[in-house]
Design brief:
The structure is a single chain. The chain has 204 residues and is mostly helical. 67% of the residues lie in helices and 4% in strands. The protein has helices at 5-18, 30-37, 41-53, 72-93, 99-108, 120-136, 141-162, 166-173, 178-186, 190-202, and strands spanning 57-60, 64-67. The chain has a two-stranded antiparallel sheet. Strand 1 and strand 2 form a beta hairpin. Helix 1 (5-18) packs across helix 3 and helix 4 (72-93) runs antiparallel to helix 10. The longest helix is centred in the middle third of the chain and has 22 residues, at 72-93. It starts with a helix and ends with a helix.
């Protein structure tokens, strides 16, 4: 099934936030989105309501929509949530991960080279993809969908916080534990895999 128009509008707005086109001072209105995106009001309204429900935007009646203010405390709360959630699911579904899953994930791992990433978005898209692929190997649709939402929220918060000083912090973020996680899974060492997964989540 293809994406709905509302979903496409949602993703477009998220991309505008991530790339810094929309920031905390921007007032987002239905009329402007209708004109800029060339889309009818109904899917735009649906996307804006969903962004509010996802706690990304908030509505100001008869004025428009604004971004929720990003802060390091909120980002840390997301990380703490993931530190509880992801290792627990790796523990629960460790035996479901097949050799084929491992090979598929290995093929998609990228080198954490600062020359490859000029923006937080480029870094985030590549490093978070590993966690999505690992979750997919558990064959638990609800967890997979929930983790994608959590990562999307962290992605937006991360980008808003680090967009303007990305070059100053890039070296500290380029920590790649993905191969170590997969090697531990491949060797059947669940505890080591969970330990490396926690280390990787903290590096975000």
């Amino acid at each position: 099934m293809g994406k709905t128009l509302s979903q496409k509008v949602y993703e477009t707005i998220v991309e505008l936030i991530i790339t810094g086109e929309f920031n905390e001072s921007t007032v987002i209105t239905e009329n402007e989105l209708v004109e800029d995106l060339g889309v009818s009001r109904s899917p735009i309204r649906e996307a804006l309501v969903r962004l509010c429900n996802d706690d990304i935007l908030y509505s100001i009646p008869r004025f428009g929509y604004k971004l929720k203010i990003a802060n390091h405390k909120y980002l840390n709360e997301i990380i703490q949530f993931r530190l509880v959630l992801e290792p627990a699911y790796l523990d629960k579904y460790f035996d479901r991960i097949t050799e084929k899953d491992i090979e598929n994930i290995k093929e998609k791992i990228v080198t954490m080279d600062k020359n490859e990433f000029t923006t937080p978005s480029e870094y985030w898209e590549k490093t978070s993809h590993f966690h999505i692929e690992l979750a997919y190997s558990y064959r638990d649709q609800y967890f997979y969908d929930m983790l994608k939402k959590v990562l999307d929220k962290q992605w937006i918060t991360f980008s808003m916080l680090y967009w303007n000083n990305w070059s100053a912090i890039i070296d500290s973020k380029l920590v790649n534990n993905h191969i170590a996680i997969l090697n531990s899974i491949e060797s059947g060492d669940k505890e080591e895999a969970m330990l490396m997964l926690r280390k990787d989540i903290k590096s975000f």
